[in-house]
Amino acid sequence: KRSQTAVENWTRSTCVYCGVGCQMEVGTANGQVVQIKPAASPVNRGHLCVKGRYAYEFGTADDRISEPMLRRDGTWQPVSWDEAFDFIASRLAAIRQQYGADAIGVLGSARATNEENYLAQKFARVVLGTNNIDCCARVCHTPSAKALKLMLGTGAATNAFDDIEHTQLLMLSGCNPTENHPVVGARIKQAVRRGAKLIVIDPRRTELAAMADLHLAVRPGHNVELYNAMAATVVEEGLLDADFIANRVDGLAEFSQFVRDYAPEAVAASCGVPAGLIRSAARLYAGAKPAMCFHGLGLTEHVQGTEGVMAQINLALLTGNLGKRGAGINPLRGQNNVQGSAQMGCDPATLTGAQSFVEAGAHFKSLWGASLPASHGLDLLSMLDAARAGRFKALWAVGYDIYPTLAHVAETAQALAALELVIVQDLFLTETAKAFGTVFLPAASVFERDGTFMNSDRRVQRVRQAIKPPGNAQPDWWIIQTLAQRMGHQTGFDFDGPEAIWNEVRQLWPAGAGLSYARLEHESLNWPCPDEAHPGTPVLHIDRFASGPRATLACLPFTPSPEQPSQDYPFVLVTGRTLYHFNAGTLSYRTPNARLRPSDTLDMSPQDARRLLLNDGEPVRIRSRYGEAVLPLRISPTIKPGELFATFHRPDLWVNRLTSSYRDNRVNSPEYKRTAVTVEPVFGGGN
Ligand code: SF4
């Protein structure tokens, strides 16, 4: 009905869901959003997916919270902003005095703008005096950022989406763009129809896998082994780009020796891909110039997530597929502003612009007029570990529902229960707030504030206010700034709006200095963009890598995950997303998409379903070593026997009760993509 209301105003803004960053026109009437239509932009070229098109009814959902609240005697009570700020300021001061600043942490998120994430990390470092600041990138693409930074010098996608139309070959690893990045998925399909080759590396036969030239159905968690085998083929068969290596790559002799142990014939059984297919994929990738890689969380959310991305970069270095249009390594960022939240400094180890304390610390100190915290910060998972150990006492989560979304819910619950203060800032009483919240701060939605988001291809785009927030809800930047002032920081937190905050970011981040609001009013630009005359940088590493003139191949032994199937837990479960929903469902389950796909599902192969006498649609109990969940079964030929796939969007279905606490061996990201489970009918039976 709402979409039939006559629109009074159209406001151009950016989609709140995935990292593609589609531009949209937001139609409003009577102070409400009543329609969304696509805008022409270099990213989405007049298209939106089913998520973006219906992404507005959450703003007026019945359970939207528009007043600050304190939990008193177990009951949430509305209070004024003054009362909420006084309570938080006094509790934070008391906790800091008793346990020290490092007993407190702050979480930014993709739901907040760049400006708000910047203020959140400034608050942690300047007001609280701790580097305990992190964001949702920790659970998705921190492994990508780490791998790209380590090997090439910039922790972000090497190319713009426009390069899809300039490539000869697309290699997709652990991603399902037609569901999770649908507008990019459509561009990939069009490129393939025009003649680009397609290799898909994924345990499941996704829509793009079905239309690929080659589909390598790798066993979950065996990516390093598979990439090493492809690299071994490239070396053994002389498929190298000799000029590129001579001019720009070190370490070939050692690497060639190392990958001898990974001949396709030696690893085929372990990684689940026939040797001939591995060799064919290596030949196809090496022979296509240029060839472009995209990857998703199927590559990163493993104990060897960072090393999986590094092993993929090895292939690009060996074949010269970097530093040019239509080539490169491109993480498909899952959330609208997850690139921006980490880039703004919501990371315990780096400052705004992913700058190191050594290189940039003096500049920050001088501009902020404050000293920086001396101790190393804790990442999100380490904060929760410290909470369970009694060393961490207070957490402020801005737009991030960690309780149902982190792996191993039982451990997350133990950590949150051990905290003395949990501040939740969101649109709704999230699961984290309901179970553990002490204070709730009502935030403005994406349509009710100004700012910028940074998408997957390093493009900064405006978010524009179309309507007023309801009741006393406020933009995140206002909430953070007002609390900072209440805690005695009048200067440094006296911005008159997002543009002023962004101008401070531009002073501190050289690669973003040219991205003024005046320019962003009319265009969107990929950083690095160091001055206002600079056109932006769609392709990185053209003449030299950000880290220097030469990159070094990495020798990466395959390490099996400790999470292994057994007689009791014979299946390997992978979790992931569907086209209709987004992450914890906080927004998408309050839109018409809830009717389009009401429930999460467990996908099982027809062979396994027959063997276990399970029927399509029947509820099944899934048990792992860590917990259990019940989901309706979906029999799907896209799944191999012995493997399962579950979506995780409905917080009340608690799919993350199943996932383990194993983490990436370099950056501590959870291993969501490999859990040993068993499945049984809800009313008895078993396997
Ligand atoms: Fe575009 Fe992603 Fe939003 Fe869909 S969810 S409209 S692909 S930004």
Describe the fold and architecture.
The protein has 25 helices and 26 strands. It is an alpha/beta fold and 687 residues long. Strands 5-4-16-15-14-6-7 form a seven-stranded mixed β-sheet. Strands 21-25-22-24-23-26 form a six-stranded mixed beta barrel. A hairpin with a 3-residue loop joins strand 23 and strand 24 (628-635). The relative contact order is 0.16. The mean pLDDT is 96. The structure holds iron/sulfur cluster (SF4). Iron/sulfur cluster (SF4) is lined by residues 15, 17-18, 20-22, 44, 48-49, 51-52, 181-183.
What is the compact description of this entry?
It is an enzyme of class 1 (oxidoreductase). Residues 8-63 form the 4Fe-4S Mo/W bis-MGD-type domain. This protein is α/β, with parallel strands linked by helices and 687 residues long.
- Structural domain count: 4
Task: Give the termini distance in whole angstroms.
Answer: 48 Å
Structural class: alpha/beta
Main pleated sheet:
7 strands, mixed
Output the CATH topology of the largest domain: Rossmann fold
Gyration radius over CA: 24 Å
Question: How would you describe the shape?
Answer: globular
CATH class of the largest domain: Alpha Beta
The distinct ligands, each listed once, are:
iron/sulfur cluster
Count of distinct strands:
26
Strand content: 15-25%
Integer average pLDDT = 96
The assigned CATH architecture of the largest domain is 3-Layer(aba) Sandwich
Could you estimate the helical fraction of the residues in percent? 25-40%
